[in-house]
Design brief:
The chain starts with a helix and ends with a helix. It has 746 residues and is of the alpha/beta class. It has four domains: 1-98 and 475-508 and 529-566, 2-Layer Sandwich (Phosphorylase Kinase, domain 1); 102-172 and 404-474 and 509-527, Rossmann fold (3-Layer(aba) Sandwich), CATH 3.40.50; 191-371, Dimethylsulfoxide Reductase, domain 2 (3-Layer(aba) Sandwich); 611-745, Barwin-like endoglucanases, CATH 2.40.40. The protein is built from 27 helices and 27 strands. A hairpin with a 5-residue loop joins strand 16 and strand 17. Bound molecules: ligand MGD (2 copies), iron/sulfur cluster and molybdenum atom (MO).
């Protein structure tokens, strides 16, 4: 479908850009700030920070008012991730600090797990409780049987503590539940993964292809801003999405694909580019490996073949392929970020990488730039003990191409199995709400049942804290120092986070929690410093800066050491693959026994009366972490389920009517969710925003609002190559009457 270009440009100049250029979100203010009237700017103070509301990590300034109260957060103009502009979530981060539901003291469980009964404890008592059990576990099973799940900045300090204790089993959900498949696919093709921020050179692109990547709702700041600029400069946007996403509504082409069939479209595009000779022969010869095999492989994968699978018309497939080729090499087939969809995700992303390889966009202006990050040395510490067991022992011969630990893998390896020398006995969970984050909740709960110790470190009472034996309250990012932000970009840049206020209540930062727990475990040699300022100052001095300088400037940019971020035309360039070339035919995959070139396989489709459950982001929320944030809750307080009007009519469902969803395994959503009847979604799918339907009553604003997608994701399609958890193979039907309690709990 071709969308209206003129209308689209009009939207773009005030659209995506204005989303990124957020005004301070002051919809909600704590009472004392409301009554204080305007702030006396001359008495305001500013403290550098980088945002923790999502993992784009924009650097900015936290302002305090004349009373020393945290007032607002704005972007740092020098910051490459934000260009000085925060997204609505980042600006609304103040609400995380003022949220009255925050965890206030350490808590120790008094009833069975999940019952949510806790008593207040002192930090000493909580640390003693944890250390005693960790020592017992180390003696009885080995320290490797303790795992750390962590998502966020404090993970560095806790990871150090765990490695000193003797375990390397450290994991984040941002790999096997998020970007893992694309890292493996791009590594196999170009010898380099993508990392964060993705090195997409969107600002100079002539053609951006988004395959389920919903920039504009996915508010990854720099990308959204660059996309808006690229649109204004006349770039062609092609969006492939079963839903008319914000990005699709601003695109020249919207391809409303049948879900789960993208690989067929990608192969047909490759077919057109090869068969119509739309590639640069000299480039292919010099830089790629396996072109002839690829040509043979896609020989029959015509647009007509793909039409039958994807429902995208052949002439549209041809036209869009030509658009890409015309823009080449300033073209980006965007790799996406959350790509664990259908279990063959590494292969789908391989097709994306191959297409980029054929079009010569790697290392090219307007394609992918070669990012660089600055090396910041670690504070000296004794050598870590060498672990003798790893999570991988549970999967002999499997997932060899996975470069990071799988969160779902640790979960699986926790479920007792006599064949394993180490089933996990303790989880330390920092900044990840595993109950809402890992698919197949039954499995997560069953794994946790067999644990001897669960520690949750969080800022909020969440689903996961309800299952902990001990809860430790971390202070928010606005009240703490953290690890230095060392991120890749066009130029290497670092950023400092420092507190703008003392931690509220009895909350403490992760660096302190790691050090104090380390001491109780007899690991004080690994923490030879009084406070974090000492560590940061030492690290910064090693690279020619200092804590004092960074407190003043917040971010610092360094000159590149690795030459240009672009590969010059005709330059001799060796890729980090076994052939030194872009591997259109992957030897690494072949060696592991997988298809060296992607093969399309059909995925199950919903039965009559069922619809595919797809999910994504809303611009003003991040996962489940912001739904109780007073500022952001004001902007969106519940999710809704998008249903095509044809389907709604069939079911007699009206717009705004509350309904319940029931999945293919009979799981019914605990809470009702509002119907949004809209042409913007295909008839065979329904869509909800992830992160709602909170079941923890301590979340006074978010409890019971909307439906949780995770609850309904019981079918997981595991990627055989790297173990990613494909989550979009679930189908739901509608209940228009309130289900009985038994039905909900079945
Ligand atoms: N069903 C479903 N599952 C998904 C996804 C999906 O779209 N749908 N998305 C997947 C993706 S892409 C990702 S990256 C993951 C994200 O997974 P998570 O990172 O687990 O996401 P959140 O739900 O935001 O959980 C974050 C937790 O950290 C806490 N927290 C916030 N700030 C701090 C802090 O400063 N310190 C500490 N200690 N805790 C803090 C929050 O209160 C919350 O409990 O989820 C994956 N899982
Ligand atoms: N506001 C906000 N922004 C965020 C986040 C957040 O929580 N809030 N989280 C960040 C994180 S960690 C991540 S990983 C990213 C994730 O964001 P992205 O990587 O951009 O997107 P996905 O979550 O993979 O996909 C969501 C889109 O895929 C479409 N879709 C569903 N099924 C299919 C299909 O079969 N084929 C195609 N082509 N499309 C399909 C959906 O309709 C939806 O528009 O967002 C990041 N940005
Ligand atoms: S994109 Fe928004 S939420 Fe994410 S780090 Fe930047 S300002 Fe914060
Ligand atoms: Mo993610």
């Amino acid at each position: 479908m071709k969308t209206n270009r003129r209308k689209f440009i009009k939207i773009s100049s005030v659209g995506a850009g204005s989303l990124a250029l957020a005004k301070p979100v002051l919809g909600w203010l704590p009472k004392f700030l409301e009554s204080e009237g305007p702030l006396d700017d001359s008495k305001a103070k500013k403290f550098p920070t980088y945002c923790e509301i999502c993992f784009w990590k924009c650097a900015g300034w936290t302002y305090t008012n004349d009373k020393g109260k945290i007032w607002k957060i704005i972007g740092n103009d020098e910051d490459l991730h934000s260009n000085g502009r925060f997204c609505p979530r980042g600006t609304g981060g103040v609400g995380m600090y003022y949220d009255e539901d925050r965890l206030k003291t350490p808590l120790i469980r008094t009833n069975r797990r999940g019952k949510e009964e806790f008593r207040k404890a002192s930090w000493d008592e909580a640390f003693d409780y944890i250390a005693e059990r960790m020592k017992k576990i180390a003696n009885k099973y080995g320290p490797e049987c303790v795992a750390l799940f962590t998502h966020g900045s404090g993970g560095h300090f806790l990871g150090h503590m765990l490695k000193a204790y003797g375990s390397n089993n450290i994991t984040a959900p941002s790999y096997a539940q998020c970007r893992g498949p694309r890292e493996v696919a791009f590594f196999a093709t170009f010898g380099r993964g993508l990392g964060s921020p993705e090195p997409t050179d969107i600002r100079d692109t002539k053609c951006l292809v988004l395959i389920g990547s919903h920039l504009g709702e996915n508010m990854h700041n720099g990308q959204v801003q660059e996309m808006s600029d690229a649109i204004d400069k006349g770039a062609t946007i092609i969006t492939v999405d079963p839903r008319l996403s914000t990005a699709a509504s601003k695109s020249k082409y919207w391809l409303p694909i049948k879900p789960a069939t993208d690989l067929a479209l990608l192969l047909a595009w490759i077919h057109v580019i090869i068969n119509e000779n739309l590639y640069d022969e000299a480039y292919i010869k010099k830089y790629t490996y396996g072109f002839e095999q690829l040509k043979e492989h896609v020989k029959n994968m015509t647009p007509e073949w793909a039409y039958g699978i994807t429902t995208i018309q052949p002439h549209i497939i041809r036209e869009t392929a030509r658009e890409m080729a015309n823009a080449s090499p300033a073209v980006i087939i965007h790799p996406g970020r959350h790509v664990t969809w259908y279990g063959d995700d590494t292969q789908r992303l391989r097709a994306v990488a191959i297409l980029n390889g054929l079009l010569g966009s790697w290392g090219k202006r307007g394609g992918f730039y070669l990012p660089e990050k600055h090396h910041v040395p670690e504070f000296p510490h004794p050598k870590y003990p060498t672990p003798t067991k790893s999570w991988k022992d549970a999967f002999p011969g499997q997932y060899n191409l996975a470069a990071e630990t799988l969160a779902s893998g640790i979960c699986d390896a926790t479920i007792p199995n006599p064949d394993r020398s180490c089933n996990f006995k303790a989880w330390i969970i920092n900044g990840t709400n595993l109950i809402e984050t890992l698919p197949d909740r039954k499995k997560t709960l069953s794994a946790m049942e067999s644990l001897e110790l669960i520690v949750a470190i969080d800022t909020m009472p969440m689903e996961i804290t309800g299952y902990a034996d001990v809860i430790l309250p971390e202070c928010t990012y606005l009240e703490r120092y953290d690890d230095i932000r060392v991120a890749q970009h066009r130029e290497p840049q670092i950023a400092l986070r420092m507190p703008a206020a003392e931690p509220m209540y009895e909350s403490k930062p992760d660096w302190w929690i790691a050090k104090e727990l380390g001491k109780r475990l007899g690991l004080e040699d690994y923490f030879p410093y009084e406070n974090i300022e000492e560590v940061l100052d030492w690290q910064l001095k090693q690279i020619g800066s200092s804590l004092e300088e960074m407190q003043r400037i917040g971010v610092k940019t360094f000159p590149r050491q690795e030459g240009s971020p672009y590969i010059a035309d005709g330059e001799d360039y060796e890729f980090n693959t076994s052939t030194g070339k872009i591997e259109l035919y992957s030897l690494a995959l072949e060696d592991e026994g997988f298809d060296p070139m992607p093969v399309f396989t059909a995925h199950p489709q919903p039965e009559n009366g069922f619809y595919r459950l797809i999910y994504g982001r809303a611009p003003m929320h991040t996962f489940s972490r912001t739904s109780n944030n007073p500022n952001l809750h004001d902007l969106m307080d519940e999710n809704s389920v998008w249903i095509n009007p044809k389907v709604a009519k069939l079911w007699g469902i009206k717009n705004d009517q509350y309904i319940w969803l029931k999945n293919q395994d009979g799981i019914v959503s605990t809470f009702a969710v509002k119907a949004r009847v809209t042409e913007r979604i295909r008839w065979d799918s329904v869509y909800i925003v992830h992160g709602f339907g909170h079941a923890n009553k301590r979340l006074s604003r978010a409890f019971g609002n909307g439906a949780s997608d995770t609850q309904l994701i019981t079918n997981v399609m595991t990627d055989p190559i790297m173990g990613g958890t494909g989550m979009r193979g679930n189908f739901v039907t509608f209940l228009t009457e309130e289900p009985s309690k038994e039905e909900v709990e079945s």
